[in-house]
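User:
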Amino acid sequence: MIALSEFHRVLKDDGLCYVNFLSENCDSCGEGKEISDSEYVTIQNNEEVLYVHYKDTEIESLLSKFEIIYKEKHIVKRNQNTKYISSGFYEYILKKK
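Assistant: Predicted structure:
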């Protein structure tokens, strides 16, 4: 992933960064036009938006250049237009190796 490579490049040795990823536990997972496995394009406010929903194992393989300091999975339910929706997130604090 280009963004993670750039984070690694600009961090000082032992530098920390925070990242989060959408999980497959989101109600939005699978909505829109499928681009590839777990990647979907939807229209929001007349613009295309790309959403990628990850599995636990997919994320960890992207983080091999970092030491994982903190990892947590959250599932949040919120009221959106009188309908409750769930959003799932994986949160990480990473340290440059």
